[in-house]
């Protein structure tokens, strides 16, 4: 599909551009020279990126370019793959999350994650799913009813499920399940939220609702979203980073304000990708 | 216009949808059905055989066959049957008691080792332990019996005395006389060790299948390994663990040689687990079979039939349990 860059740029331009350092909440995240390997395969090379507090950054690029791998290095989910290795630093509010002696569960509490496929816990009710993080991380909370309502409201799901909190999560539609998963990750009050293609398994209507939710959440946290959908990147993000692999390890080609990436990218390869010449 | 007309027209009856399977498919279906039915037929024939042989004993002894605890067959000088008093009450109680101890002790250990193997053990240790446990599952039960009798008995007796000393206010830890050798407690422990491998294998396989996306979801919410296992793995694996425990229970209930070696077979209903008296149905059959006359053999068949029915009931209950508690976490 050939997309004219100007149409994407105009979508991106519709967003109110936010600039780091102005009234923003959340925690900043910064990577320095991140490399990643699976076994001996070098999949990601030298990625240094800044995610300023309170911004939304989209990671785009063709399949296999390492953007999901990169996302998973940001909350230490990368190391769950048995042969995974990493070099470089990931700084959360200036502190390296891979430093020896770091409590990894605390990192994941501060940097939440929403996955590609909705994955509510089927043994729990809708309400229990939202509050599951408290139990899993062994946090004490007094007013759980209030928390439940506020998380579901922020995820844009409250009005749809408020009378069915005792039903099981599996009874919801795919889009509702994904918003339930967002609500679940909000309950532990993360400062950064990572989203790995959160809409790729959903229909356009659900995608629209999730994008609304993202815009709403962006007011109070830092968001990094991997997406295959360039329109989505244009609609929801302040910054866009373009990843690419030429068969070797993936590299970050360009990171710019979203409107610039889609109107006047600096790199020829970025331009070819956003105009639909490949990918 | 046509749309409206169609609406008023008659709604047709649903068509019958059929397919004609290919010849190869039909043949394969036949082969598979044959295989599937074979086990059912064999099981049915065994039940039938036991029923035919044992029926006249059951109709003669009536209910006392399962409530009374005697085993007397008196023959006159010509070898004809003079009098008989047969009842397997004590053996049924023994079967329950020994199996129950085996399950209570064996299943928790098996579940813990399955969790260890799935989520903690790595590399060589993991491979080694898994093959060791599979090897244990194939171990002849006679060897467990010997080991229980010659090696394990002494220390188990010591534990039994300790339990008796401090917990004798609990009726099942009390004893009528200080005989701690060859008790249901010791037999139960030996059986527990016997069933650990199979329950571990089954639990491990089910834990291994826990969907990765749920595991990762839990970790992404700041779960530790312990809380992740509690929230995700246990609900998912519960049904499978119950199934594995029931297989273990089946093995424990039918176990013959190991129990025969370790347990002191006595015709007296004994609920006191630490006291050296007991027996189970299978070990009774083994004990009596060699020297039994034709009438007594039939009685042993009847005992076998009762054991068979008991096992079926236990398995049916296990299915109910799995359906009731197992499905939710899936």
Characterization of this structure:
- The complex is a heterodimer of chains A (279) and B (330).
- Chain A is of the alpha/beta class.
- Chain A has a single domain (5-15, 26-274), classed as P-loop containing nucleotide triphosphate hydrolases (Rossmann fold), CATH 3.40.50.
- Chain A contains eleven helices and ten strands.
- Chain A has helices at residues 5-13, 67-73, 104-110, 126-136, 144-154, 158-161, 174-186, 204-217, 230-236, 258-263, 268-274; strands at residues 29-38, 41-51, 56-60, 84-92, 95-96, 111-114, 192-196, 222-226, 239-244, 251-257.
- In chain A, a hairpin with a 2-residue loop joins strand 1 and strand 2 (41-51).
- The longest helix of chain A has 14 residues, at 204-217.
- Chain B has a single domain (86-329), classed as MetI-like (MetI-like fold), CATH 1.10.3720.
- Chain B has a two-stranded antiparallel sheet with strand order 1-2.
- The two termini of chain B are 50 Å apart.
- In chain B, 39% of the residues are buried.
- Count of DSSP-assigned helices of chain A: 11
Largest interface (CB within 8 Å) is between: A-B, 26 and 21 residues
Most strands sheet of chain A: 6 strands, mixed
Strand content of chain B: under 5%
Order of helices and strands of chain A: HEEEHEEHEHHHHEHEHEEHH
Structural class of chain B: mainly alpha
Helix content of chain B: over 70%
**Biggest sheet of chain B: strands side by side, in what order?**
1-2
* CATH architect. name of chain A: 3-Layer(aba) Sandwich
- Give the uncertain stretches of chain A in residue-range form: none
Task: Report the C-alpha radius of gyration of chain B, rounded.
Answer: 27 Å
Describe the biggest sheet of chain B?
Answer: 2 strands, antiparallel
The tally of domains of chain B stands at: 1
What low-confidence regions of chain B span 5 or more consecutive residues with pLDDT below 50? none
Cα shape of chain A: globular
Question: Mean pLDDT of chain B, nearest integer?
Answer: 87
- The CATH homologous superfamily name of chain B equals MetI-like
């Amino acid at each position: 599909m050939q997309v004219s860059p100007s149409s994407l740029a105009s979508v991106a331009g519709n967003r109110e551009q936010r600039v780091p350092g102005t009234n923003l909440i959340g925690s900043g995240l910064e990577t320095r020279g991140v490399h990643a390997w699976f076994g001996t395969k070098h999949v990601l090379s030298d990625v240094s990126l800044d995610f300023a507090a309170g911004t939304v950054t989209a990671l785009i690029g063709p399949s296999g370019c390492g953007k999901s791998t990169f996302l998973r290095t940001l909350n230490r989910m990368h190391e769950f793959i048995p042969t995974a290795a990493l070099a470089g630093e990931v700084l959360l509010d200036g502190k390296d999350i891979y430093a020896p002696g770091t409590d990894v569960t605390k990192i994941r509490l501060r940097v939440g994650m929403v996955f590609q496929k909705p994955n509510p816990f089927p043994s729990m009710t809708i309400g229990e799913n939202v509050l599951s993080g408290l139990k899993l991380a062994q946090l004490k909370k007094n007013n759980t009813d209030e928390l439940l309502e506020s998380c579901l409201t922020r995820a844009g799901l409250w009005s749809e499920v408020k009378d069915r909190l005792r039903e099981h999560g599996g009874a919801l539609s795919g889009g509702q399940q994904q918003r339930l998963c967002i609500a679940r990750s909000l309950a532990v009050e993360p400062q950064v939220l990572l989203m790995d293609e959160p809409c790729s398994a959903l229909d356009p209507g659900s995608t629209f609702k999730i994008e609304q939710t993202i815009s709403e959440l962006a007011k109070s946290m830092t968001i990094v979203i991997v997406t295959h959908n360039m329109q989505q990147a244009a609609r929801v993000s302040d910054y866009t980073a373009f990843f690419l692999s030429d068969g070797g390890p993936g590299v970050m080609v360009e990171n710019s304000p979203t409107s610039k990436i889609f109107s006047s990218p600096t790199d020829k390869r970025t331009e070819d990708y956003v105009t639909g010449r490949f990918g | 216009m046509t749309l409206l007309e169609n609406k008023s027209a008659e709604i047709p009856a649903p068509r019958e949808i059929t397919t004609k399977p290919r010849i190869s498919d039909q043949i394969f279906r036949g082969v598979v059905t044959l295989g599937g039915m074979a086990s059912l037929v064999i099981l049915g024939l065994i039940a039938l055989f036991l029923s035919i042989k044992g029926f006249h004993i059951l109709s003669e002894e009536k209910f006392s066959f399962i409530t009374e605890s005697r085993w007397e067959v008196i023959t006159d000088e010509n070898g004809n049957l003079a009098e008989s008093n047969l009842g397997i009450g004590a053996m049924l109680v023994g079967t329950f008691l020994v199996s129950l101890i085996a399950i209570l002790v064996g299943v928790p250990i098996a579940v813990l080792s399955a969790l260890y193997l799935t989520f903690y053990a790595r590399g060589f240790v993991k491979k080694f332990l898994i093959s060791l446990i599979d090897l244990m599952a194939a171990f002849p039960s006679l060897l467990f019996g010997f080991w229980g009798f010659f090696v394990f008995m002494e220390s188990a007796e010591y534990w039994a005395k300790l339990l008796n000393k401090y917990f004798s206010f609990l009726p099942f830890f009390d004893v009528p006389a200080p005989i701690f050798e060859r008790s249901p407690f010791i037999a139960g422990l030996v059986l527990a060790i016997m069933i650990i491998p199979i329950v571990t294998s089954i639990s491990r396989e089910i834990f291994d299948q826990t969907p990765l996306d749920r595991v990762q979801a839990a970790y992404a919410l700041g779960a530790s390994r312990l809380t992740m296992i509690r929230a995700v793995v246990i609900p998912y694996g519960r049904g499978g663990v119950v199934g594995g425990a029931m297989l273990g229970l089946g093995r424990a209930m039918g176990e013959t040689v190991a129990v025969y070696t370790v347990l002191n077979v006595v015709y007296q209903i004994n609920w006191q687990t630490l006291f050296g008296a007991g027996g189970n149905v299978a070990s009774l059959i083994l004990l009596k079979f060699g020297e039994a006359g034709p009438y007594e053999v039939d009685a042993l068949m009847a005992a076998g039939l009762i054991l068979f029915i008991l096992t079926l009931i236990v398995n049916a209950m296990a299915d109910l349990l799995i359906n009731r508690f197992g499905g939710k976490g899936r």
